[in-house]
Amino acid sequence: MRIDDLADESRWPRFALAIIEQTPVRAAMAIQLFTNGEELGALNLYSETPNSFSDDLEDLAHQLSTHAAIALSGSRRGQQFRSALASRDTIGQAKGIIMERFGIDAVAAFQLLRRLSQESNTALAVIAEQLVSGVHNP
Question: Most exposed of 51, 52, 93, 124 (fewest Cβ within 10 Å)?
Answer without folding.
Answer: 51
